Structure formats: C-alpha cells, structure tokens
Amino acid sequence: MKEQSNILVIGGTGKTGRKVANKLTKAGHNVRIGSRSTSPSFDWDDSETWGHALRGMDKVYITFQPDLAVPGALAAIEELTKQAKRADVKKLVLLSGKGEPEAELCEQVVIHSGLAYTIVRASWFNQNFSESFFLEPILEGFVALPQADVKVPYVDTDDIADVAVEALLHNKHDGKIYQLTGPRTLTFREVIQEIAEATQRDIAFTPIALSAYIHVMKEQGVPADFIWLIEYLFTEVLGNPNTAEITNDIEQVLGRPPKDFSEYIKETTTAGIWNPLVTN
Ligand SMILES: NC(=O)c1ccc[n+]([C@@H]2O[C@H](COP(=O)([O-])OP(=O)(O)OC[C@H]3O[C@@H](n4cnc5c(N)ncnc54)[C@H](OP(=O)(O)O)[C@@H]3O)[C@@H](O)[C@H]2O)c1
C-alpha cells in the first residue's frame, strides 16, 4: 500500500504552493495549507502561530514571504527549523532563489538542521508576468523597467511544483540542491514583445534607470520594505553574471524537459489574463 504523508505547505495558496498542495492532495496525501488565511493560521510575522501548523506534520514545503534575502529571513528560518524538529517533522523542502547569496545562508540552516531536506533553488518565475507585479503594467499597455537587456532563464511554476512534489515524496532527492531554470533566456524587452505578439496588443516597452524606477515606486507610496526588495532583486540577482545560466535539473528530476516560455504565453493568453483593461 502507498504510504500517506501529512504535509504542511507554507504559502499553499501562492504561485508554487497551491500547485504543490493540489498535486499532493490528488496523490492521496494529507495536506495542510499554511498561510495567514487558513486555520490554524501560519504567519511569518508571528512565530507563535507556527507550532499549531507544524503539529502532526511529517514533511514541510517552505515558501518564505516575501523573499529569503530580506533582513529577518535567516532568523525566521532558524526558528522554523527548530520548531519543526520539536514537532518531529522528518523532511523540509525549501524554495529558494537562484543568485541570492542571502537566500543561500537560509539554505545552510535547512541543510544543517539534521532533518532530511531538498533545496529547490529557482530562477525568476514566468508567472511574475501574470500573477505578480509585472501584470499591471502589461494590462495598461506600458511597461518601463530597468535591466532591460539582462537575459533571464524564466522557469514555470508548474515545473517548480512538480520538482517540489517529487522531492517531498521520494527520499532519493534527500540532500540535493536543485537549480531550476527554463530552457532559454529572455530579456524583459523580448518577454514584452512575445506577449504583445501573442495577445495582438500594443504594449510599449521603455528601458529606464533603476533610480527612476525606484523614484516612481516611492511617489506611488509603495512600502519601503518592498522597494528595498525590488532594488535588491534588480541589482543582486539581475546584476549577477550567472543569472543567465541554464541548468538541466528539471529534466534530471522529472525525466522531461522544462516548459518553454512560449507554452506559458499560449496558456496565459488562452486564459485571458492579459486581456486589456476596459476603462469606462
Ligand atoms: N517570484 C519569483 O520569481 C521567485 C523566484 C525564486 C524564488 N522565489 C521565492 O518564492 C517564494 C514565494 O514568493 P512569491 O512572490 O512567488 O509568493 P507566493 O508564493 O505567490 O506567495 C503568496 C503565498 O504566501 C502567503 N503569505 C503571504 N504573506 C504571508 C505571511 N506573512 N505569512 C504567511 N504566509 C504568507 C499567501 O497567503 P496569505 O495571503 O493567505 O497569507 C500565499 O499563500 C519567496 O520566498 C521567493 O523568494 C520567487
């Protein structure tokens, strides 16, 4: 008989978490979603909520908010790991970010936790253009971004979720660090061009300086923490010469190639996510 696990998916309504939770449930496992809106609730800003969420769980998929690079993330992962051990959790699968030295410090905490672990270190997600902060300017038809010509091997959250599920369910992935990327690199300029062609819309793309981008965010009242993170991601991650590196870890783990950006574009266009905003 197939063994059934109790698995906590932290961020289980988010971009990768909801897919991981669905796949595990379909495979017959008991899934508990950890987020601020679930019961018991799990809030990264309140470590007192973590014990209830961890109780009775065998394994945990960890997606930290907002990013493992932010100040405070290291202490939070240290505390979560401690509480997980106390709750007799057996395995941790950590979603991390490729090209983020601070995230790698958090990985080390999990690696040295004494628990079984897998690190899933992902490149930027395709879904940042359909479920995150790049969506709004695309809908408005005017995208202005710094680092316009940096090449990024965007990875699809379907592939990340498939790898995370594999890692959670099979101990041959214990002790491994997987670096997940898509099969080709694209610049912001190329991404917007591909979306414009697929949706048959006019979407203007303008390269701007990072300082100008930050200035606009400040004027719009974007919280300082979020601005710090954006500045970090645009300098540390996109400024890292290894950002463009393409890996074959998805194929190694799943036995099939990663999803190409064009497939993601086709699916998202068909779903109508990039239909222009209708203004009255
Ligand atoms: N986006 C990328 O390109 C990328 C690339 C590599 C790695 N990553 C990493 O992936 C992780 C997830 O990032 P994401 O931006 O894609 O987010 P996401 O997974 O879409 O996050 C949303 C999820 O987090 C929950 N959440 C939000 N704030 C929370 C809090 N304070 N406490 C507990 N749960 C909270 C949300 O539920 P509630 O609102 O109900 O709480 C929801 O389930 C981050 O650690 C990021 O560094 C992202």
TrEMBL record:
Gene3D superfamilies: NAD(P)-binding Rossmann-like Domain (3.40.50.720), UDP-galactose 4-epimerase, domain 1 (3.90.25.10)
InterPro entries given in the database record: Ergot_Alk_Oxidoreductase, NAD(P)-bd_dom, NAD(P)-bd_dom_sf
Every NAD(P)-binding domain range: 11-170
Protein name per the record: Uncharacterized conserved protein YbjT, contains NAD(P)-binding and DUF2867 domains
Organism of this sequence: Kriegella aquimaris
